[in-house]
Structures are given as structure tokens and as C-alpha cells.
Amino acid sequence: MNGSAWGTGGGLSRRLLFTGTFAVATSALTEVATADRRSRPRGPARGTVLRARPATVSLGGRKVATWTYGGTVPGPIIRATAGGMVRARLVNDLPAETTVHWHGIRIDPRMDGAPGYTQAPTKPGRTFDYVFRVPDPGTYFYHSHVGMQNDRGLYGPLVVADPREPLGYDEEFVVLLDDWLDGIDGTPDDALRRLNASTEHDDTLRSDLLGGVTGEVRHPYHLVNGRMAEAPEVFASRPGRTVRFRVINAAADTAYRVALGGHRMTITHTDGFPCAPATVDTFLIGMGERYDFVTRLGAGAFPLVALAEGKQARAFAIVRTTPGARRPPRDVKVPELERRLLAYADLRPRRADALPRPGRTVTVTLGMRPSGNEWTLNDRLAADPLRVRVEKGETIRIVMDNQSPMWHPMHLHGHTFQLRAGERRGVRKDTVNIKPRERLSVDVECDNPGEWMFHCHNLYHQEQGMMGVLGYGQAPPRNRHMSH
Ligand SMILES: [Cu+2]
């Protein structure tokens, strides 16, 4: 796959977008968006087929057996328009149950793909139609939310266009980052078993930026759009073009420090939501986070690098604006990585975006049990989870207090929250990194009733218990949604 496949500039993106379509009955589509209504007032609507199946894929220099959507890693780009609908049919050809989670979308809870919370997982041989409205524009992604499946190839980008896009740019590229071990060091389930069998943490995985130990597992490869550094993704453009990069971290256990050699970057969005433009040289992106940046491209071929923070490895791609330009080698030094780094304090909302004042504060303590392999929220594990009870219409402040020895990218389903720095309101996000000994406050407007996962997006921590619930009203009977 070449770079243009992931940008709006190339013809391939349109082909990818429209491969594998299906028709769904209009009865399910009562909330059809304006754009859809214009083109298809009645009759069947088209959607994407996500056929979850085992496949052998090439990562560039290496072939691996893994689980995929439709035989490729990543899965197809899904594009939608804010206010419009997404329609995707999951066909489960895996030898295991699965779901699709639409990360960051303020979604109908029945479509959230949270097994045991809002839906039963889809059994092998069965299908499930995901049909939902997307209220907010921005950069999102989709992935399996069953066990360790997200550390295989079961993920892909979801880009929601703004019908009134205020940002001026000539073209855009999706940069999907991932750490990879499946089919090389066994499976992610094997890696979790090895982790659980040991009480030691790998002390060589350290980063000051993340306050200490940075990860649980040393993934042998780091990918941009499914490509290893040895056979990198190439984003082809032209000198002088203003390009929007949509960067998504789909990794299981790796934060990346991202930079584009020879360029500064102007951060315009985080987790889909706009921020006041902040010009920096590099930014850190945790698992589940997204950043959009724009930059005006120079002439030549430039390294786009994502340093696997604290792991002595990196993902690597090339941005090329001059066809004959010599490609930088994959170990090229990128001084921007050591220059001005984006901080959360740099992120200001682009427009007045004030949630109602929170009526109360809930403290959630992030902890680790002495085993070193159990991560807790208020001392509870996923098997008997912390449930933060809320009522529809209230706004609460959640104070996350990290008393564990590792950083955690905490993610809330079904909502966006607003970062707080003292009395100053920050940006909207749905995933936020919290370092050891750090306390961080977010405000949540409770406007989407359901039982919503609230968890660490380090997949290993998630599976080692770091999963709670934000639930509306009385708790539903346990595992109601698990019954078939
Ligand atoms: Cu964690």
C-alpha cells in the first residue's frame, strides 16, 4: 500500500472506502443525517463490511499470521460526516467471540461493543450490524474490545468529517501507530500469560517523560499503517502543501513521541476535538489518544518517526514531496524529538466550550496490588468493578489519583471529558495519560445513559483488572448482557 491510500488526495482511499458494502433496512435508520437524506431519501443504505478473520499479512519485511478485518492490517478506513450515520456489518469468521468498539464516539450504548456491559459478544459464524449516529467530527478508530484481540490486527481508522470544517489544508493523511508481536513472539494471549507468571517488571523499559517504567512488554515491531520501518509507509505530497496528519495510537502497551524531521507541527485537535493551535516540535501520544496536526511541507523526503517511549525502538514512515528525493535511512537522527514537546497545559479549547459546573467530585485511585500483575481502581478489579453511579443531567468531576508505580492512559466510553487545570478549563478528550504520583481532574457531563467502561487503555492492564464502570442510576443485574 502506498501513502496515497490513506490520504484524501489518492484514488485508492475512495476504493478502500467503498470495498465490501452491504445494504441494511431503512427501518433501522430513522436518524439519517442531512447528507444521507440528500443522496438517499429511501431505500437501502450502504455500509462497510468488517469480516473478522484469521489471515497472513505482510508487515513489509515480514509475514505474520494474525487476526484481521478483511485480511488487511489495519482494517479499512471508515469515513463518515458529523451528524451522519456509520453502518458497519461485523461478520465473525474468527474462532472466538468478538465485538467492535468505536473508540471516542459518543455512541448509542447498544453499539459500543463493550462485551458484558452493553452488548453480548458476537459468536463465531454470526454477524452484528453496527448502525449509529456520529455526533462529533474528528479522528477516531475502531477495534475489538474482547480480551487481547486489540493487540492483534483487529483495528482500523474512523474519520468523521466536519461539514463546516474551519481548518484550511490541502490534503490529509492518517497515521495509525501500533506495537506488534502477534505471530512473532507467540500471540498477545501468550504475552499476557508470560507477564502474569512473573512478578518482575522489565526495568529497562523506562522513560522520564512517563515517570518511570513505561511498558509491560517489548514488542518486536512498531508500525505505521501496518508497515515496519524496513519497508516504510510513504506519504506522497508536493512542496508547499499544507497537510493535516491524523495520528492515532492503536498500540497495546506503547506511548510514542512523534516528530516530522525538518518541520514544526501545529497541533489542532486532540481526541477528535479542536484546540487552539499550538506549535511544537514533538508530542507524546498514549494508547487510545489521537492528535491532529498541520504543517506546510518542504521539498524533499522527510522522516516521520514515532519513538517507542522508553523502549529503544521506533516506528518510521516517509513524507516525500519530491519524487527523486533520496529517502532518509530509518535510523536517521531526528533532532525535533528532543525539542519543544507538547504538554497538556498547552492545550486550550479553540472556542468557548464550558460544561456546567460539576455538582460533586468523585476520586478514583489508580493502584497496583503487590503481585505487580493486578491493577485497581479504588482497590477493585474488573471482576468486581468500581461503579461510579451518576444521574442523567448532572456534571461530575473525576479526580484520578495515580498511586501505582506506572503511568496509565485512562479512557471513558460514551462521553468526552474536559481536562481541568485548577479553575482553568482545558480541552475535551476521551483518553488521558496519568503519571505515577500525579492527580488529574476531568469534568464529565452525564448526558448519555448507559453502563460505560472506564479503563486503562494499556491492554495488559485492562486484562489485569484495571476496568471500572460509569453507570447511570441503579446498577443493572450483573452480566445481564452476557446472556444469549
Ligand atoms: Cu494502565
UniProtKB/TrEMBL annotation:
Record keyword Nucleotide-binding present: no
Q: Which InterPro entries match?
A: Cu-oxidase-like_N, Cu-oxidase_2nd, Cu-oxidase_C, Cu-oxidase_fam, Cu_oxidase_CS, Cu_oxidase_Cu_BS, Cupredoxin, CuRO_3_CopA
Which of UniProt's keywords are assigned here?
A: Copper, Metal-binding, Oxidoreductase
Q: Which residues cross the membrane?
A: none
**Alphabetized PROSITE patterns for the sequence:** MULTICOPPER_OXIDASE1 (PS00079), MULTICOPPER_OXIDASE2 (PS00080)
List the Gene3D superfamilies hit by this protein, alphabetically.
Cupredoxins - blue copper proteins
Q: SUPFAM superfamilies attached here?
A: Cupredoxins
Tell me yes or no: is Metal-binding among this UniProt entry's keywords. Answer: yes
Q: Which domain of life is it from?
A: Bacteria
Please name the Pfam families in this protein's record.
Cu-oxidase (PF00394), Cu-oxidase_2 (PF07731), Cu-oxidase_3 (PF07732)
* Ranges where the Plastocyanin-like domain occurs: 57-164, 201-312, 372-470
Q: What is the name attached to this protein's record?
A: Multicopper oxidase family protein
Source organism per entry reads Nonomuraea salmonea
